[in-house]
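Aim 2, interim progress. The first record below pairs a target sequence with its structure tokens.
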Amino acid sequence: MYFKGKKMHVVPKAEGHEHFGHGQEIKDELAKRFPQTAKRILDVGTGFGSNLIFLKHLYGKPTLMWSIDPSQDTLANAERLLKEKGLSEGVTLLKGNAEKMPFDDGFFDLITSVMVLHHTVDVPASFREMYRVLEKGGTLIIADWKPEAHTLPFKDHHHEKDFVSATKTEQIFRGLAEDVKLSEWPLWYLLKVRK
């Protein structure tokens, strides 16, 4: 796993221990906002693979999914987990980063990024890239921690300045798109963008 462009040593999480107890709430809110169908999904920031598993359960086999992460180790762990669960069919894992993605313009109809933005080096560049590879009429959903979440027991490297506020995230996307909806909770937020 990478944080601000630097490799971190991370021990894979035990199942059921997601996002400091907010995992189910985050999944429930994401599911409410996802479109009913999707043909090509991009998960930005593979991490522990939990979002891919969640997406596979929601959308099933006919949907093709890609996930990018700068860490080859992270991708290998996610691939192993998907295979163990019988969910690897139709999933492509690629080494890459959110700031410069190896995809054509408008390739995906759904893009998600869950608790990843605070790991990126250049948040505005990440937003521009996600928007670039989203097709016209497509949906982009981002969830991330608010700066107040710096008090959570992260393993290391997390400080208040590492997080982008919900309002700043909304402002950046309003410069790209007209249909931007922000929802907030005490420690995290969710942004839904339609292109």
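The second target in this work package is listed in the same format:
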Amino acid sequence: MSISIPVLMYHSVNDELRDSRDVSVKTFESHNKYIAEHGYTSLTAMALYKALKGETPMPAKPVVITFDDGFRDNYTNAFPILKRYHVKAVYFVVSSRSGDDEPDFISWEEMREMEKTGIIDIESHTHRHRKDNLEIIGRGGEEEIFEDLTLARKMIGEKLGKECRFLAWPQGHYNAKMLKIAEEAGYYSTFITENGPNISLQDGKIRRFKVKERSVFWLRVRLFLYGNSFLASVYAKMKKIGF
């Protein structure tokens, strides 16, 4: 059975647990401690892309940590833990939202600080975080989507001095037209919120599983399932039909 790369999706690390997607500081630390102590190799988005394309060797136990939205606790709470355990993570930020204007989000200076460590890889969660992208496409707004994706790449590039090549769709909403537009806008691949194996980039999509306030045992089981292409495929099908 071939190796699949498990890709975890977090949002916010805080002890208030205001949202069902939130993870406490203690739980996030336990997750990273497990990953660090059990031989996993954490990858950036580019390292994942190259491994799935066969351009670089696949690590024995690869894993990718991702965060969506760019909340400030990703800097104040998550980043110190990631540094402590030397676990890399991909932060998908909304380029129109930064702590420079909105205190709930990471500032550009904080992003630059994190990028310099090599621990954090900043990528695109679009420019405006539109939740109605499918409706926009439905009314023929391809150019509007293209401009939003292009502006996000441009702003991240200018602010951080890097090439932004990866995208996570807001709310996980996308269709075939949007994937094509993302490619035309210069993105190499897109991260989605669907479960399943990651063994190649034939369809240009990278699948992720959502992480909530769950135990290390819960994480251990899912890393095992999503680290095996056959099991990941079967488990995704079971979840789809409600098991």
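The first strand starts at residue 7 and ends at 10. This observation will shape the mutagenesis plan for the next reporting period.
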